[in-house]
Amino acid sequence: MYRYMKERQSDVERESMKMKCNKSQMVTLTMWKIFMALVLLLAQALVMPVTLAHQHSMSGGGGGGGGGTGAATGHNGEVSMGMGMGMGMGMGLGMGLGAVGSGLGKDAHVKTKDIDAVEGKSVSLPCPIAEPLHDVYMVLWFRDNAGIPLYSFDVRDNMAIEQPRHWSAPEVFGSRAKFHFDSQPATLEIKDIKRHDQGIYRCRVDFRTAQTQSFRFNLSVIILPEQPLILDRWGRQLNGTQLGPKQEGDDIVITCRVVGGRPQPQVRWLVNGLLVDNQNEHNSGDVIENRLLWPSVQRNDLNSVFTCQALNTQLDKPKEKSFILDMHLKPLTVKILDPPSSMIADRRYEVTCESSGSRPNAIITWYKGKRQLRRTKDDISKNSTRSELSFVPTTDDDGKSITCRAENPNVNGLYLETMWKLNVVYPPLVTLRLGSTLTPDDIKEGDDVYFECHVQSNPQWRKLLWLHNGIHLEHNTSARVIRSNQSLVLQKITKHYAGNYACSAINDEGETVSNQLPLRVKYTPVCKHADRVILIGASKDETVEVVCEIQADPPPRAAAFPFLPL
After folding, report:
1. What pLDDT is attached to residue 108?
2. Rounded to an integer, what distance in angstroms lies between the CA atom of residue 500 and that of residue 495?
3. Which of 16, 86, 315, 375 could cross-link to 63 by cystine, CB 3.0-4.6 Å?
4. CB neighbourhood size of 425 (10 A)
5. Is residue 205 within 8 Å of 127, Cβ to Cβ?
């Protein structure tokens, strides 16, 4: 076509040199030259007719006397097909030029709509075709200022609207694009969006009889940022999903680092789903950081979820990294469960101590005084620790304390303990002793003697008995036998007070008799039968054996037999 237009221009110039015309003819010739020059410039800029004819098999109508395939441009230099008007190629191009001019002017006033798409996802560019749909001739899609369409929807050649021809430029979208004419509105679906797909897209709808429609879209391709990295206060990367373990009162200092993203992402911190910090604090190139300070963590912060999010679009989920806070916690409670109010001496008991609130579970130890008790059995559950102590209390344990201590070895120097004072019951422990001022071997008739009965018992003894040679002694002042509390006093004793003494104590647990304590009473010798007169007869010069039984303590060394005449 370009060669044809060049030849036409040469013919016109030769004809003008031969013509001799008046002034009005010269004006007409000048306007014709200007017109042909414009057509030539347009033909130089457009090489599309041959290309488009090859790609789309677009054919123009036959015009009178040599009208054949014709092409024209419209809407910012887009190539379209025109029909010959029976005036040859020159007239066809003239008509096409008119279409170009009107298309450019019209497209300049088409409003551009912004559409966002995420790299790797799909997007649908709408083309809201107005009625009548059955009159649609062709739908062309263009990008930026290109005059060559990248996609066409063709229903020419009397084709049914349900059986169109689709064509997608392989170097642009290829099989990634598909035009959906029957959707409301009609859309060009583009799959697997690439970052270089960003640009201005135009949809042009040609009708058989109605006016052409145009729509413009500014497609922005959003590039998601990389997955966030979490750094501790020393810049070391944290892996896994656990943060800590921390102790109560510790500060949490963590930094979220995000690389890349278009547009620049917002980096923010959420704790348990609530926004706590959305200020980007550091920006170096395509690296964005947000440092979170969470001061003095408390027990109720355990298992809190710290989440860093990087987001630069509402079209996709934000990139995020979450950590769950783990903590070492001291015990909250420790108690001995249902300790017995009293225990019988020398009987085995099992007592349980329970502690809760520690993380990890508390370690429980038992003490009696300062001595650790080791006969224990532990039961560890999710929320508590139980320890069972098995022990046999003795009478000496009465009044002592058992301590249960719960501690978390990961929390230095902090523990809880509870104490239980033992009440050990037992029958009386009874011991009889001679008065401390007396010497057992120096007691003689006429002396005063006293005994002390020492009783240890729980509960307190309620009755005390005294025994002499197994016989109960009662208080008798006339007999000079006096009982006073836990003492027995014998005044001006005689030899008859000698013998075995004991005391007996009684409480609710039983009766106990003390040891037997012998009492020795020294006295002068006496005849055993001094109250009797024995007559012995004998002949003269007869030898007579006379027995004299003498009682004395200590035993007598000699005995005399005075002769008493009748």
Report:
1. 53
2. 13
3. 86
4. 18
5. yes
* Whole-number Å distance between alpha carbons of 222 and 540: 160
The whole-chain average pLDDT of the chain stands at 82
What tens digit of pLDDT does each residue of 468-480 get?
999 999 999 888 9
Q: Which residues lie across from 112 on neighbouring strands?
A: 216
Give 311-338 as a DSSP string. ES-SSSPPEEEEEEEEEEB--SEEEEES
Two tokens, residue 106: 């019209």
Query: What is the domain class of 229-328 according to CATH?
Result: mainly beta
Say yes or no: domain 112-222 is CATH 1.25.40.340: no
Q: Where in the chain is the domain with CATH 2.60.40.10?
A: 112-222, 229-328, 333-422
pLDDT tens digits along 508-549? 999 999 999 999 999 888 887 777 777 778 888 888 887 778
- The 3-state DSSP class for residue 2 equals helix
Question: Can you give 393-462 as a three-state secondary structure string?
Answer: CCHHHCCCEEEEEEECCCCCCCEEEEEEECCEEEEEEEEEEECCCCCHHHCECCCCEEEEEEEEEECCCC
Amino acid at 509: E
- Choice between 241 and 45, residue whose per-residue pLDDT is larger: 241
Return the bridge partners of 189, or none: 124, 178
Q: Which fold has domain 333-422?
A: Immunoglobulin-like (2.60.40)
Q: What is the pTM of this model?
A: 0.63
DSSP string, 38-54: HHHHHHHH--HHHHHHH
